[in-house]
Amino acid sequence: ELKVEQNPLFLSMQEGKNYTIYCNYSTTSDRLYWYRQDPGKSLESLFVLLSNGAVKQEGRLMASLDTKARLSTLHITAAVHDLSATYFCAVLIYTDKLIFGTGTRLQVFP
Amino acid sequence: DADVTQTPRNRITKTGKRIMLECSQTKGHDRMYWYRQDPGLGLRLIYYSFDVKDINKGEISDGYSVSRQAQAKFSLSLESAIPNQTALYFCATSQPGDSGNTIYFGEGSWLTVV
Questions:
Q1: Which letter does DSSP use for residue A42 in this model?
Q2: CA–CA distance, B76 with B71 (Å, rounded to integer)
Q3: Which positions in chain B touch A43 (Cβ < 8 Å)?
Q4: I want to staple B76 with a disulfide (CB 3.0 to 4.6 A). Which of A17, A73, B21, B51 is the partner?
Q5: B12: buried, middle or exposed (CB in 10 Å: 19+, 13-18, 0-12)?
Q6: Cβ of residue A31 closer than 8 Å to a chain B Cβ
Q7: What are the pLDDT digits (tens) for A4-13?
Q8: Distance of alpha carbon B88 from alpha carbon B107, whole angstroms
């Protein structure tokens, strides 16, 4: 059974601090997505990682993919309140079935 | 206007009633999806369609049916709604080769079954 696990499920962090969210998956895939969701809102695409070793950065967020370890990370640098949201990773299997992790709820406080 | 539009955005219905959620897109994508989100869980795939003549079951298709009326339209039906189908439903689209095959989501439809 395919599993996509995120760690931690909830993260409360102070502004200015750094932290990493982990996404482990249990089957072969060479495509991984990161999404952001604000409460009651749709999902906003953050990153699409297409190959082993891929690294993408946008502002204070950086995502990486290790397909051999079946691991992706989302690193937050110098967190700000606007980053408070729920972050999902999702793994693409069988040509376009996207399987989601349970999400990491991030709360950034002053 | 949103590229992926869902209607209705909110609906309360009674147990046993038939309810249809509609999705239309202006992105010209061939592939469309219906997902369901429950509190504390990620999104789970209900059905997906790679073109008008192609419909496939996802992880949790029981109790649901879909219709792909046109490339731009993909509707989800609950033939006889039950309370545990109360959830937030998302329609999504994608196109191979388009921006790394990014999947674009609609705004969501809140469905409450009482």
A1: -
A2: 15
A3: 43, 90, 105
A4: B21
A5: exposed
A6: yes
A7: 999 999 999 9
A8: 10
Structure tokens at B38: 């429950």
Q: Do A88 and B101 touch (CB under 8 A)?
A: no
With left for phi above 0 and alpha for psi between -120 and 50, is residue A46 left, alpha or beta? alpha
Residues in chain A within 8 Å Cβ distance of B58: 97
Tokens 């609906």 -> residue: B11
Mean pLDDT over A32-40 rounds to: 92
According to the model, what pLDDT value does residue A78 have? 96
- Classified as helix, coil or strand, A4 is strand
Contact between chains at A98 and B33 (C-beta distance less than 8 A): yes
Chain centroid to Cα A56, Å, comes to: 12
Q: Locate B41 and state its tokens.
A: 């869980």
pLDDT tens digits for range A46-59: 999 988 888 999 99
Rounded Cα distance between A81 and A107, Å, is 8
Cα–Cα distance between A59 and A101 in angstroms, integer? 23
Q: What are phi and psi of B83, to 5 degrees?
A: -55, -35
On average, the pLDDT of chain A sits at 92
Q: What pairs with residue A6 in β-bridges?
A: A23
Q: Which residue bears the tokens 């691991």? A: A71
- The tokens describing A17, both together, are 């601090």
